[in-house]
Every structure is written in structure tokens, then in C-alpha cells.
Amino acid sequence: MVLIQRLLLLPVLLLGIAAVSFGLSRATGVDPVIAIVGERAMEDPAVVAAARAQWGLDRPVAVQFLRHVANAVQGDFGTSFRTRRPVGMDLAERLPATLELVLAATLLGTLVGAALALLSARWPHGLLDQAVRGFASAGVSIPVFLAGLLLLWLFATSLDWLPGPGRLDARLTPPPVWTGMLLVDAAWAMDWAVWRDAARRLVLPAAALGWGIAALVARLLRATLIEELARFHIVAARSRGLSEGRLLLDHALPNAMVPALTLVSLSFATLVAGAVLTETVFAWPGVGAYALESARTLDYPAIMAVTMLGGVALALSGVVADAGQAWLDPRLRDR
Amino acid sequence: MWRRALASPAALLALLVLGFWVVTAITVPWWGLPDPTESVGRRFQPPGGAFPLGTDALGRCVLSRTLHGARLSLPLAFCVVVGAAALGVLLGAIAGFLGGAADWLLSRAADIALAFPPVLLALAVAATLGPGLLNAGLAMLAVWWPIYLRLMRAQVRGVMRMEHVQAAVTVGSTPAAILRRHVVPLCTTPILVALPLDLGQVILLGAGLSFVGLGAPPPAPEWGLMVAEGATTLHRWWLVAGPGVAILSVVLACTLLGDRLREQGRG
After folding, report:
1. According to the model, what pLDDT value does residue B267 have?
2. What's the pLDDT score for residue A334?
3. Cβ contacts (< 8 Å) between A20 and chain B: which residues?
4. What is the extent of the structural domain holding B207?
5. For residue A298, which residues of chain B lie inside 8 Å, CB to CB?
6. pLDDT band at B98 (very low <50, low <70, confident <90, very high)
7. Residue A67 to residues A59, A71, A305, B128, B257: CA-CA distances in angstroms?
């Protein structure tokens, strides 16, 4: 039921997202024509008029909005003022780098967070539990850019165990593009030198971005595990003589992990967009860095596309999370 | 609730840390520290001597800049959270009290605002308004108000079903009087509990916006900006250490305090 309600509201939400991102891009005090033709050409009215006509900026705002929505639905997000290429093409080129980073961060964060939560729930209120709770509080309190710099300083600058910023050593030739994710492409091309370098460069940004996820997962999963452990089926299983470890893994975890998994799937879209700061710190050529460059140069077809796609991704991930939850937890299906 | 929350040593420590920063923010101009925006020594001096946290690329005292930074980040975050809470509470009360079309419109507006990833929305708003501390604040306001609207709306709808409100409706009190006297006083606790946690998160986002150059412009001693300035020369760790510890300590204190309050509010 909740799922159906959500699906019915989705068009309203999507239209709202488009309107907000469009409105934001038009609310800039700066005339976008400056960004297109440059400041010097602004004095030539013919050039300005031609640019306006070419980019459709001479039409009424409502017409521009409707045309933009119609184009966006067909996958056309306009042309970037900055790169002079279709924004869709720019994004398609940069999305794999972000996806690779976010997937690695999510995997790392979920596993570490789950491990910490299990340790915490096994011996609640002990010293270990206190440490995990401290880590969880610190994890949600440390800015991701600071975590990134700390990791860079420790492992790249001081210890020199891992390479610094960047996605691949400039001296290496990237593998032929297949998925755009370096690890996948390098493995496909069996270019293990590239794979090794790419993997070593992925560790730090993934850890910086995954730190927060680990903290969130540890917090939530610890709470649900402890709640679950107090329930009757656990008491019954314990009285049959099952070991505490078995109880935790086989009987408490399957029920307790549903909210945590929902959280992870919900935060995935946020992470893709939130990669802005991580990508800045690690000079990672992804969507986040693209969004920032666009914001700095008032490249508003690009800003609008990124904002809109971020909103759409988050809205859809909400629906997916609901569906996933219903699939994992049969009790939610008929509600 | 506050007294019980403060019974734990962690919460007390958090309150002390926050107290330190608030006192610093108010009184630091009279501490006799070097001017935070003027060059007062050699460039890149490591910590020690006259400069306990060293000097930066322009020979400015990092300690003085870090302490003065509290005068920017804290008031900004405070205004954003209070402003977002005021706006959200007002609109949430209207939505919950009136119901119907007003509720639908306001709730959908909140849905749409919450549909954007926070960093991205703040980035887009800050880019639209142009860089600057005030604009960064407005950008964060845009991110936070719908959270309070939802919170308040749910509260009001719950309270409206209570008997004393039904009684007030029956005896013919005016809607404004019902809302003010019988509903709103019962709705404030969850809002107040949420404030410290959000304060921390707003400081975090604000530092992030400054870090990417959409917050306070140089030479302001803003923490996020200072971290950005030190980010390219990590072997001079003291450039980042001061503002980094400042951000972390404030946000961690807010988180700990907020967590304790929430636990108390629940049980």
C-alpha cells in the first residue's frame, strides 16, 4: 500500500524536482549569456541576440521549462556552457568513476559497520561496545573532506604506503573503455599493472566516503540486533543450547539487517551526489567534481542536470528501498 | 530531561566543549591574539614559540585564526538551525492543523525539497546565490526546513487527536487559541531534542561548502576554508590540524549531546 502511494506520488515529485532545479538555475543574478559568449562579446548586441536565440533563452520562461522537461525525458539535458558538449555525454563519461567509488565505499562501509555492530551486540555495554559507539559518533561527526585529508596525510604523505590523489598513474595507459569502471575494464583487458594501481588509488577515497556509512550501519544495526536478541525466539533458541555466536548470526541478524540494508540503499543515491567533497579531495574525475566545477562556473545546464538527476535518483532509490524491504520482510507486504 | 541527559560524563564533556567554543566565540577579540587576517610572522612556521599552532601560507597565526573561526561557524549554524526550525514549525503546524489541501501542498513541497541529496541542493542554491557566508546559510536553510516541517506536522496531527483538544473544539475555542494553548506546547519536545544533532550537521555541511569555495571568501578565518587552504600541502599538517580539530570537536559534542537527549526523550 505504502509502495503504491509512493508510486502514485512519484510524478508529482519528479515534476517538482525538475521545477526546483530549473528555478534555481534561472534565479542566478548573472545573465547566462555572459557564460556563453564571454564578457567582451557582451557589448555586441548582435552576438548576444544570436546566442540567446541559439540557446533558446529568448523564449518565455514557462516555454523554456516545458521544453527542458520534454528534452530531459528523452535524455537530452542540453549543452554545457563550459565543455560545449551535451551534458548527458559529460555525465555518462564521469558517472562510472563515481559509481566505482561509491560501490567500493558502500561495500567497505557496510561490511565494516556490520562487523562492528555484531561485535558490539555480542558483548553489549562492554569496553568493545563503548569503543564501537565512540567510533560511530565520531564517524557521523567527521566531515568527509577531513577524513579524506587525514587518510591522505597518514597513508600517502607520511607512511607512503598508498599513492596520493588521482584515479590512475599518469604513466599508465588506461584500458579500453568498456564499463568505464577501471577495475572492471582492467580485469577485462587482463592489464594487471593498471588494475593494481587503480585498486591502490581506490582504497583511500573509498575509505573516506565509507567511513560515514560504516558509522551509520554500526549504529543502526547494533540497536536492532540488541532489540532482536531480547525477543522470544532467541530465548527459545538459547534454551535449546545454541551458542551465542550462532544465535547472533543465524537468528538475530537476518531480522535485524532489514532496516540497515534499507538505510544503505537509501544512502546510495545521496552518496553519488555527496561524492562532491570526496572527489574534490582525491582529484577523482567523477560526477561530484563535475557538479562542483559547474557550480563554480555557473554552467547552469550542467548544474540543473546534475541536481535533477540527483533528485530523481534519490526518489527512485526510495521506491527501490521500499520494494526491497517488502521483499525481505513479508510482514510489510500487505500493509 | 536535560538534567538526566547531563548525568552521563560524555554528555557533560560535550557540554563543556560547546561551552568553551561559545565563550571563545564571544570573547576572543579581547584575548590579545594576533590579528587573524594579517600576516604577523614568517610563512609556514611549524607549531611552537609565539605561534602554538604555527603560521600559514601568508604568515598568519593558525591558532588565532582557528579561535576566531568560532565567530563565523557557530553563529551561522545557530541561525540556520533556529531559522529552519522556526520556519518548519510554523508551516508544519499549519499543515497538521488545517489538513486537506494546505497539508497536501506543504507536505509535497517538503517532499520535493527532501528529494534532493543535501550536499547537491546546498551546492546548487549556493551556486545560484553566489559564494558568501550568508548565501551558504540560506542554502543550508533550504536543506533543513522541510525536516522540521515533517517533524512538527506529525506531532500536531498526533496531538489533535487527544481528548483535551477535542474538548476545546467542542466548547468553541477559536482555532488560533486551540493551536497556541492546547497543541503547540505539547509538540515542542521532539523539536528541541533534534536541535543539537542538527546544529552539528549544519556545521558539517557549512564547513563542506566553505571547503569547496562556496562559503566565506578569503581571507576569512572560516574552518572549512582554512582546511581547503592547507589541503594542498599536507606535509605542513598544522595548517589543517587546528581547524580540523575545531570542526570535529564541535560536531562531535553536538552529536553526543543530541544522542543523549534523544535517548532520554525516548525512554
Report:
1. 46
2. 58
3. 112-113, 116
4. 56-266
5. 127
6. confident
7. 10, 6, 14, 21, 49
> Which of the residues A209, A219, A222, A276 would you substitute to probe the B interface, choosing the one with the greatest number of B C-beta atoms within 10 Å?
A276
pLDDT attached to residue B254: 92
The secondary element (H helix, E strand) that includes residue A316 is helix A300-328
Any domain includes B174: yes
Q: Do B119 and A277 touch (CB under 8 A)?
A: yes
In a domain, B31, yes or no: no
Confidence of residue A270 (pLDDT cuts 50, 70, 90): confident
B100-112 pLDDT, tens digit each: 898 999 988 998 8
Report the pLDDT averaged over residues A271-283: 82
Nearest to B252 among A138, A274, A315 (CB): A138
- Phi, psi at A242, each rounded to 5°: -70, 150
Is residue B216 pLDDT above 80, yes or no?
A: yes
Q: CA angle A283-A314-A145, nearest 5°?
A: 30
Q: Count of domains in chain B?
A: 1
The residues near A40 (Cβ < 8 Å, ≥ 6 apart) are: none
ipTM exceeding the 0.90 mark: no
Instruction: Name the residue of chain A whose CA is nearest to B232's CA.
Output: A281
Q: What CATH number is given to the structural domain containing B127? A: 1.10.3720.10
Contact yes or no for A20 and B113 at CB 8 A: yes
Chain A residues in contact with B126 by the CB 8 A cut-off are: 295
Q: Which of B69, B122, B118 is nearest to B229 (CA)?
A: B69
Does B120 sit within 8 Å of A20, measured CB to CB? no
* Mutate which: A146, A162, A277, vs B, most B CBs within 10 A: A146
What distance in Å separates residue A58's CA from the closest CA in chain B?
A: 20
Q: Which residue has the higher pLDDT, A71 or A37?
A: A71
In terms of CA atoms, which chain B residue is nearest residue A165?
B232
Q: Which residues fall within 8 angstroms of residue A39, CB to CB, at 6 or more apart?
A: none
* Domains, in order of start, for chain A: 2-73 (no CATH), 88-332 (1.10.3720.10)
**A128-155 average pLDDT score:** 86
Q: Distances from the Cα of B30 to the Cαs of B27, B34, B66, B72, in angstroms?
A: 6, 11, 15, 16
Reported as a single tens digit per residue, the pLDDT across A66-120 is 887 888 888 788 788 788 888 888 888 888 899 899 999 999 999 999 999 998 8
| Domain presence at residue B207 | yes
- Position B135 in a domain: yes
Give the torsion through C-alpha atoms of B197, B201, B207, B208, to 10 deg: 170
Q: What pLDDT is recorded for position A274?
A: 67
